[in-house]
Amino acid sequence: MKPVKIAILSLTHGHTRKYFQTLKENPGLEWIAVSAESEKVRDNFLKNNYQVPCYMSDEEMFEKHPDIEAVVMASANSRHIEQFRMCADRGIHILSMKIPSFNMKEYDEMVELVEASGIVCQVELELHYNPVVNRIQNLFSQNKLGKISGFNATNITLSPVWAFPWQGVPEQSYGKRLPLSPGDNRFRGGALCDHPHVFDMIRWLTNSDFEYIFAEAGPNIRKELEVEDILLVNGKMKNGVSFLFDPSWSRMEERLEVPAPGWEVFPKRMEVNLTISGENGVMLADCFGPNVYHNGAPHNRYTVHYTYFDEWIGLMDEFIHCIRNQSFPKINLKWHKTTIEAMNACYESIYTGQPVYL
Amino acid sequence: MTDSNIESALKQLMQKYEVKGHPRLNLLPGWHFLGKKLNEHDVPLLTWRSNRRFTELQKLVSEQVVEDVSMLRFSSFGSNEEWSLEALMYREFDLCEFISGSNIVSLHAVFSDNSTGNIIVKLASGVIGSMEVGVQAPVGRRLLERHEIIARRGVASDMVVDTQVPQSSVYTFTREGESVYKDVDNELFGLDEFQAEWVRAAFEVQKEPGQSEDLKTRHARLSRLVDTALMSNSGKQKMEVI
Known about the structure:
The complex is a heterodimer.
Chain A: E1 4-9, H1 16-25, E2 29-35, H2 39-46, E3 54-55, H3 58-64, E4 70-73, H4 80-90, E5 93-96, H5 104-117, E6 121-123, H6 131-141, E7 148-157, H7 170-173, H8 191-194, H9 197-206, E8 210-217, E9 231-237, E10 242-246, E11 270-278, E12 281-286, E13 292-294, E14 303-305, H10 311-325, H11 333-352, E15 356-357
Parallel strand pairs in A: 1-2, 1-4, 2-3, 4-5, 5-6, 7-10
Antiparallel strand pairs in A: 7-11, 8-9, 8-15, 9-10, 11-12, 13-14
Helix pairs in contact in A: 4-5, 5-11
Chain B: H1 4-16, E1 26-29, E2 42-45, H2 52-62, E3 67-77, H3 85-100, E4 104-112, E5 116-123, E6 128-134, E7 144-153, E8 155-157, E9 170-174, E10 177-181, H4 193-207, H5 212-235, E11 239-240
Helix pairs in contact in B: 1-4, 2-3, 3-5
């Protein structure tokens, strides 16, 4: 199969560096170029020594490399619509980050752009390619737990805002500056915007959609942030499954400008854990564990040292397959729209103090 | 290769990454060849080195995240239908030298009834290590293992603090009882941890068959270490490793 010629846009998304190795190693890809959002971002990229040309604008990159067939859109959420238009116009396939847009008008425009141009647009929800999630799905298909009644999940991490500042800027993360609730001096755009996975996972595994959703934001543990960092969500699915999610930035971090060892203060910097109840019993799952552990450099703190992150391989394999075989990705814009609507409903619930029906 | 799942997973990887390979190679975990004369197609694999648990522990030492290692504490208990003491020793001796980056220069081993063994090793670097091995665990149980590295700066381990048994990623508690699952490789989903590392190790040899000779040399050394441990036990004395 002819390798897909691919580029990365902007390099400002927290997941950017996860793609570097896959783009280099996957025989189905030929990594052509990157564009950088700023000189600082460019300098950091060049330190990796990937021997891939780096441009200071998307336009310049596309002009110099008209053979680019696909992009990883690794930019701030607020830049997505403009980059979608640019790619659709050029017939370039898109691997979108996990939040295409919280603005549903923009979102619908993205859907139309993709349909009209005939490009492939896959949304990066990498947990679909995680071996533990694969096992959970496998156990669900065997009906191991019987009829599911409860689905509780964490998607808790450190806050990436010091390394990826746009994630703490309401206009860039959420798309506009909307108060979290009346009288609250914080705005939409924080931890919730970073953690769509559990909202997606429950829909996929229970094969149902949200009936209603309730969310509550707690006092921030990082007083400097103007976006939320602690929140809880619960509600019901249309099939009667009740759920509780914790999508907080509840793990404290060192304020590094570039992610590096020692970033975490709490030993495990990121977890997605599920507790699922059904008529036959209970399942507990840790999507990123077990691992190895140490209390060595740089801070002599007890640290979870992760041992596997191969989600990006399966994710890119599917993207390549869809491009070359003109097929439709499993996680596409239309599928993902309900997840984004549910996340918006969380913000609405925080604002009104009441559950929101979808 | 003997296991058809492993064979087909390897073929699938070779196809995906366009590796032509050498179909006649006999790619087995090295301990399978203990006491046998290797023929030209036999390649004794160090499969565990393809397990991220061990590659990351090795990196924690080589990249000095834990600095100035002083002692290793390794243990490995399996069932006698799947393992022998010699096989476990082979694996643990290799992990000991691989993770520490130093050779074992002497050892003292004590065994009971060919079912349990306790070994103290000394490395060229001065590091000491303990190795507990046994084959009296029930059949079908995953290896009960611990690999702990104690250094002047930090401790590293594949066991999380304050636990006694290796953890899994999924636990189910149902009317049928308790089940555990540990899936580590989505590209090879369906294979257990040991099968996956076997396929990964075999794939590396198919990609670069030149490493076969090094693996054979390594096999000779590990076989010697196993023999030395057996001699130490029967002679009731510390043995230098030649």
